[in-house]
Amino acid sequence: MMRLYADSSKCTGCRACLVACSLNLFKENNPKKAALVIEAHFPAPGTYKVRVCTQCGKCAEVCPTGAIKLNERGAYYVDMAECNLCEACVPECPEEVMFVRTELADTSWKCDLCGDCVSVCGTGVLWIAETETVVA
Amino acid sequence: MSPTIRPFGILRDYLQGEKEAHVSAGQTVRQALVSVGIPPEVVALVLVNDQPQEKDYLLEEGDQVKILAVVGGG
Amino acid sequence: MYGYGGQILRINLSNGQVTKEPTPPDVAREFVGGRGFGIYFLTKEVPPKADPLGEQNKLIISSGPFSGLLIPGAGKCDWTTKAPLTGGYASASMGGHFTAEMKYAGLDSIILEGISPKPVYLLIDDNKIELRDASHLWGKGSIAVEKMLKDQYGEEFQVAAIGPGGENCVSFAHINHDYGRQAGRGGVGAVMGAKKVKAIVLRGTQSISVADPEGYRKAGMELFKACKEAEMLKEWSSYGTTIVVSWCDEVGALPTRNFQAGSFEDGKNLYGPVMRQKIVITDKGCFGCPSPCGKYSRVQRYDTYVEGPEYETIGMIGSNLGLSSIEDVAHANYLCDEWGIDTISAGGVIAWAMECYEKGIFTKADTDGLELKFGNAEAVFKLIEKIAKKEGIGALLAEGVKRAAQKVGKGSEKWAIHVKGMEQSAYATHNATAMLLAYMTCDVGAHHNRAWAITYDLQVGRERVAPEKVARVIWLQHFRPMFDVLGGCRLQWVELGIDRNLYLPALEAITGVHRTWEDLELVGERIWNLARLYWMREIDGFDRSWDLPAPRFYEEPPASGATKGQITRFEDVQKLLDMYYEQRGWTPQGHPTPQTLERLGLQSFVN
User: Fold this and answer.
1) What ipTM was predicted for this assembly?
2) Which domain range does residue A57 map to?
3) For residue B74, is pLDDT > 70?
4) What is the per-residue DSSP string for C385-440?
5) Which end of chain C is more exposed for a tag (fewer CB within 10 A), N or C?
6) How many angstroms separate the CA of residue C462 from the nearest CA in chain B?
7) Could you tell me if C383 and C350 are in contact, meaning their C-beta atoms sit under 8 angstroms apart?
């Protein structure tokens, strides 16, 4: 299974990834509707933290309508027609990148691994690779 | 192997289309630039084996020198 | 209108009235956006001879058609006003994320009018627009205030704030944003302070519509691809503008001790790689930037965090004040940001004061006891605070170098390094005639960013005085500021060397209007000439004498460094101006001719 990875130490906070994301997910220029998050920690310690979807599937497990499905890339995506905005998925997400904001969209949304964020990042923060198997 | 100088951007014009120039070891970067026809004052940054160096750096065998022009400033 | 926010927001601070109007399509066609909108509204709406700090002046904040979109570096914001520093035109370009947020809130320009009876901050949350009490923020530093407001409103809000320097109307006060990006020059922060606006807090959650979504996405992706494939990307991003410090030192362009020389004997301590190794902790980018020039630093010795210093600050606060430690320069940069004053002008005016001290014109009685010698970092730190507070000698220096020198006299006007009252930024121009002309004729005063011509000097012969040099300066003056019109950044083109034609399909797909670079350069020329008319309108007797450089560059050859003994002859200075006016279609006094105004469609602005 593939997923998105992020090396936060390389992030410059430019948010090009967020625009590219919203453009792919919603056909909109609106970084508020992106499926990854950049936290800026300024003025101190002066670092960025990037949170991305690990495709762990916990959102899909709890979705009562089955709206979160696997796509051809093997990634979980939201079938927007089937989402009922119950928000059951949101607290389950360990990375806090499962979104319901009814003022912005009448569906939940998440990363579907389109890869556009990777294409626009100038400093190599983001990449897509096989999910590492973690031995407990 | 003799040191190489590899110019980027507009500095390429000075080498008439060649991608890099071979120069002799034992001279400074500044002298080597002059020897291949690149005026040292148009070079902003010198990287020797990807480390920034002064133009007075003394070249050794095998050094790979990248040079960057001053393009447009702030 | 595709690619635009679609609305102009007006805030009348005197009576608290908030109004919105549609962005006029003819203004968008003729002036495109950004600083084009700025000069248009300034000329049309601010009455002639208005007091820069009075009720009639306006602060005009504008985005452009690229702002907030998938275009590399689409985060530039223009702040236009009548300048407290010069009494003429000010247009300050600020990076960061503010302009993108304006567009998401549906705004092309925000126009601040009048004067608030008490300190306020402006809150814009999409369509909710309020003036809120700022008494608890007044007196605080601009970085501290940004932090407080971000903590209160959340990470999605963008903040632009002034420091005490702006509150006290220091003539070169700036506006600070994103913990280290400024609208720096001309005193835009003093205008905001005079209006009693401490900060603007802004969030927009709307999408920006474009004319051809598929074409736009493709063109935008092409631009990002070109940036990522640029050979210089890694090196440029490692050092940002500090990449040129060593080069300037080597060729005699690094301002040293108030521009008395162009090379600094301790310059090596200030070079980009040294700074990177000693203090830089994070690379910081503006909105949508694939090649971040922002270097965020931590100075352990002073326990301060600062974005920078970038080249201009290293030149003006470092070598120009004789400071040889990058930590000291970075700390002074932090103090300027927090207190809310422009590092370039601060460096210029402090250098002038140090020269006054070393020449015996100032004694400790004049300097509040400070040993104002070049190289005294502690004195620099104290002066920054004094200037922001207008305390003691700081009150004099807060006027800017031109007025300070006029007040002090005793020959000190000779080493007041400015054009039109704006302190010259960090390129020593004893022997670089195109760069000298660029400073002489820049539309806001002696600023570098309109035409950075010094490499051209090196390429074609630095002391040469020739029509092609003049033509180069004029072309740069139209082309480079176009990025400030479009709401984008020029550095991807300038520094990464990407093909400028890649921007055209993007602009067309965004706005639905086909434009060539020739069309855009004509817009640039229209803006340039309108700014010239503004100077003529505001300053009685505005003529070619206003385009002369500081005498140092034609009277005092440097005693040391790469330009030792070199100078530009005064007759060559005059010759440069003659050629410049002729090529521009201006009279020998530097006034656009009626034919030139007609060609540019500007006749209606002179009646």
Assistant:
1) 0.96
2) 2-130
3) no
4) HHHHHT-THHHHHTT-HHHHHHHH-TTGGGG--EETTEEP-S---TT-HHHHHHHH
5) C
6) 11
7) yes
Residue A135 lies in a domain: no
Residues of C within an 8 Å Cβ radius of A: 68-70, 72, 75, 97, 100, 104, 143, 147, 155-156, 178-179, 205-208, 210, 213, 217, 221, 224-225, 227-228, 233, 237, 281-292, 294, 296, 298, 305
pLDDT given at position A121: 97
Q: What span, in angstroms and rounded, lies between the C-alpha atoms of C568 and C433?
A: 7
pLDDT by residue (tens digit) across C73-112?
Answer: 999 999 999 999 999 999 999 999 999 999 999 999 999 9
Q: Half-sphere exposure of C308 toward its Cβ, with a 13 Å CA cutoff?
A: 26
Mean pLDDT of C119-143: 98
Banded model confidence at residue A134, pLDDT cuts 50, 70, 90 = low
Answer yes or no: is pLDDT of A136 > 50: no
Query: CA nearest C549: which of C396, C431, C403?
Result: C431
Give me the CATH number covering residue C532.
1.10.599.10
**Residue C299 CA: distances (Å) to CA of A46, A98, C307, C342, C515:** 12, 38, 11, 20, 47
Confidence of residue B72 (pLDDT cuts 50, 70, 90): low
**With contact defined as beta carbons under 8 Å apart, do A34 and A121 qualify?**
no
In-domain check, residue A136 = no
In C280-398, alpha helices (H): 311-313, 326-339, 343-358, 377-389, 393-397
> How far is Cα C308 from Cα C294, in angstroms, rounded to an integer?
6
Average pLDDT over chain C, rounded to an integer: 97
Q: Do C244 and B70 touch (CB under 8 A)?
A: yes
Q: At what angle do helices C343-358 and C326-339 cross, to 10 degrees?
A: 120
Identify the pLDDT of residue C376: 98
Scanning every residue of chain A, which has its alpha carbon at the shortest distance from the alpha carbon of C235? A123
Average pLDDT over residues C488-500: 89
From B55's Cα to the closest Cα of chain C, the distance in A is: 10
Query: What is the mean predicted confidence (pLDDT) over C254-263?
Result: 98
Q: What is the number of structural domains in chain C?
A: 3
Domains of chain B with CATH codes:
4-69 (3.10.20.30)
Residues C260 and C163 in one domain: no
Q: What is the pLDDT of residues A10-63, one digit of tens each?
A: 999 999 999 999 999 999 999 999 999 999 999 999 999 999 999 999 999 999
> Would C508 be classed as within a structural domain?
no
Same domain for C246 and C146, yes or no, is no
Query: Whose structure tokens read 């740069």?
Result: C476
CA-to-CA distance for C434 and C422, rounded, in angstroms?
19
Subunit contact C288:A16, Cβ cutoff 8 A: yes
> How does DSSP classify residue C318?
I
- Is the Cβ–Cβ distance between C279 and C297 less than 8 Å? yes
| A·C CB contacts under 8 A | 106
- C377, C472: one domain: no
8 Å CB contact between C277 and C327: no
Q: Does B36 touch chain C (CB under 8 A)?
A: no
Could you tell me how many CB contacts below 8 A there are between chain B and chain C?
Answer: 67
Q: Measured between CB atoms, which of B39, B47, B74 is closest to C311?
A: B74
* Structural domain for C466, as ranges: 433-497+516-605
What is the number of structural domains in chain A? 1
- CATH code of the domain containing C49: 3.60.9.10
Cβ-proximal residues to C42 (8 Å cutoff; 6+ apart), any chain: C58, C60, C80, C81, C82, C89, C534
Q: Do B45 and C310 touch (CB under 8 A)?
A: no
Q: From the CA of B50, how many Å to the nearest CA of chain C?
A: 9
Q: In this structure, are C543 and C437 located in the same domain?
A: yes
**Shortest Cα distance from A32 to chain C (angstroms)?**
6
Inspect the structure and tell me whether chains A and C have 3 or more CB pairs less than 8 Å apart. Answer: yes
Q: Is the peptide bond before C22 cis (omega within 30 degrees of 0)?
A: no
C232–B8 CB contact, under 8 Å: yes
